[in-house]
Design a protein that fits this description.
two-stranded antiparallel sheet; globular; 10 helices; 41% helix; alpha/beta
Length: 287
């Protein structure tokens, strides 16, 4: 049996998502030329919108749109480039659906543009540290917030990351960032935490965080896990090509649901939704 998952109401601007009654699936939409798995595939706005609508048909609960790659070794891009890549796509998707939209960015100006275009959630891999103005944007807009742990920057994060105790350090960091963001005016109930699987972590670090997800959940916030197609899965399965890591990703998804995660951020929406539906139904005891 899975542990009893705590439920939360997650306010995201003008909507509230119920977390914990079932697992929510966040579909990844990278409008970048260089993301690790699907870089360049959806850089064309029409293709990006088509893919978003397909993920919605497949069962995605949230669409997460990013205009800057955060793969290991990635170079930063300007805010203007990010806005040009993301805002028109968000506007086009919003015209076609009321589904929640998330902007994956570390820059406050990009978040502002995305929110103006119709986004509801700010997903920041820097835990709101990269741009001091980000917390103000979130507080003023009432956006939902995802705070992630990352050691270093995307360009440097995989250069020999070292921890004394990766689980405790990640839990302490995220609890501290949540506290700082709350002090800046973001309501506690708007915050979701993400341990940052693959962001400045070795294979062993990633496995330790997944095995100890309940310790992060004990901090009292909903938890998002984003492990889809990541390198540590390839290290275990021997799959060099990220697109060949679907089965391994589903294994991590199932483990994360069993450990109590509320949201899964994934590339393979339809398969992950099927896994979540099965596990959620088994847990409720409904026929």
């Amino acid at each position: 049996m899975m542990p009893q998952r705590r439920t939360y109401d997650w306010p995201c601007r003008n909507r509230t998502l119920r977390l914990g009654e079932r697992t929510l699936v966040m579909g990844i939409l990278n409008v970048t030329p260089d993301s690790f798995s699907d870089g360049g595939e959806y850089i064309d706005p029409d293709k990006a919108v088509t893919h978003a609508l397909e993920m919605i048909r497949q069962g995605a609960d949230i669409i997460d749109i990013g205009g800057e790659s955060t793969r290991p070794g990635a170079a930063p891009v300007s805010a203007d480039n990010e806005i040009r890549r993301t805002a028109p796509v968000i506007e086009a998707i919003r015209r076609k659906t009321e589904l929640p939209i998330s902007i994956d960015t570390m820059k406050a100006t990009v978040a502002e543009a995305a929110l103006s275009a119709g986004a509801d959630i700010i997903n920041d891999v820097s835990g709101f540290e990269a741009d001091p103005a980000m917390a103000g944007v979130a507080a003023e807009s009432g956006a939902g917030v995802v705070l992630m742990h990352m050691k270093g920057t995307p360009r440097t994060m995989q250069e020999n990351p070292v921890y004394a105790d990766v689980v405790q350090e990640v839990v302490d960091y995220l609890a501290a960032r949540a506290g700082a963001v709350e002090q800046a005016g973001v309501a506690r109930e708007r915050i979701v935490l993400d341990p940052g699987i693959g962001f400045g972590k070795t294979l062993e670090h990633n496995l330790a965080l997944l095995r100890h997800l309940p310790e992060l959940l004990a901090a009292g916030y909903p938890v998002l896990v984003g492990a889809s197609r990541k390198r540590f899965i390839g290290q275990i399965t021997g799959r060099e090509n990220p697109e060949d890591r679907r089965a391994g990703s589903l294994g991590v998804a199932a483990w994360s649901v069993g450990a109590g995660a509320h949201i899964l951020r994934v590339h393979d929406v339809i398969d992950t939704c099927d896994v979540c539906r099965m596990l959620d139904r088994l847990e409720t005891g409904e026929p």
